[in-house]
Gluconate transporter (Hymenobacter negativus), 447 residues
Amino acid sequence: MTLLIILLAVLALIALSSWGKVNAFLAFLLVTIPAGLALGLSSTQVLAAVQKGLGDTLGSVVLVVVLGAMLGKLVAESGAAQQIAAVLMGAFGPKNIQWTMMTTGFIIGIPLFYNVGFLLMIPLIFSVVYQYRLPAVYVGLPMLAALSVLHGFLPPHPAPTALVALFHANVGLTFAYGLLVAVPAVVLAGPLYARTLRGIVSQPLASFASEPRPADELPGRLNSFLSSLLPVLVLAIVLGLQAVLPAGGPLAPVLSFLADPGVVMLLSVVVATFSLGRSQGKTMTAVMETYSAAVRDVSMLLLIISGAGCLKEVLVASGAGLAIADGLRGTGLPPLVLGWLLAGLIRVCIGSATVAGLTAAGVMLPTMAHSGANPNLMVLAIGAGSLLFSHFNDSGFWLFKEYFNLSVRDTLRSWSVMETIVSVVGLLGVLLLDWVLPLVSPKLAGL
């Protein structure tokens, strides 16, 4: 009966979000409260679980999501992202245009949220298309594949950050494993698959090909790279020091403090405020206005994340975890595969990668203690599943279609197939890591 209630709750969430067009946060609340009552909780217990889920989830992700949005917004508006793209284009040249675009998307996608990165990179893509007379999909898909993979796999993006917190994973290891999985996924879905799409006729709308900023108004090259990638550099240095220094040494508390993603993002925002803001002639008021706009951009996203936390907490408080664990043992599917499949099904039905990942996490979380699955890999498995087959109910599908001025058929065979390749390759990479890690380092595999 418990499994049936959970299934009905998920189906109701899909129906409200997809067919009913109900705001995702409201949909979570409308589903969570009846589900909690049906699972045997009293009305007081349900409300307590909702409040705890809201507080715990927001408390664990709000710093990273908000600070990440601030950094991404400043990177975009300062011209740092354009400078990074220009440097990579000069280094690789037009003959390796696909690899250049993929690398640009990979670097830009680390600090920028997907929609911000997409809108920021569209002028660059179209300028390359017009300058070198190349097919737009052939040029643009590798970059967008990189942006999409990072959005689904790696912190500080909202869904992976929330999943790391929910599963109590290690943000540094999740990021490191995510890079190992992301690279082959991007290569296969980006440059290699895009070569089969050269025949797609696309005439990007001229109104979308905006002029880039003048070179003399851009931040310096080193400044652009260091400011944009500071979160990655700090995490890499701290993770490396933690690996080589004794766990109980005098630097251990300092390293643990610096490894916290909220601290990393705060440090990065403070540095960028001066390196990409004040040093570029912006007043402090203008920089703060940029940050305020960034917070407005992610406010509803934070509510959606907290709504998923409510569903998770109700499942935990009701003791549904044991019932789900029993059901999992009956399916015979490995937990990582089941997490991927659940996220994928919700993604296909709802369209939102973030909602799919968080909903799947809410169902899978109570089973973690019984499954023995690596929490870092579970984050990646669910993240990969949340990217499966983007189609008509996904805003990213229409964003790609309209900006590239494609038919629905060509959008399906380019964008939708690319997303599916990313998802499947991501799962295969996670399963390979799950097999290799215990052989390489049992201690590391257990983190």
Summary: The chain has 21 helices and no strands. The chain has one domain: 60-445. The mean pLDDT is 84.
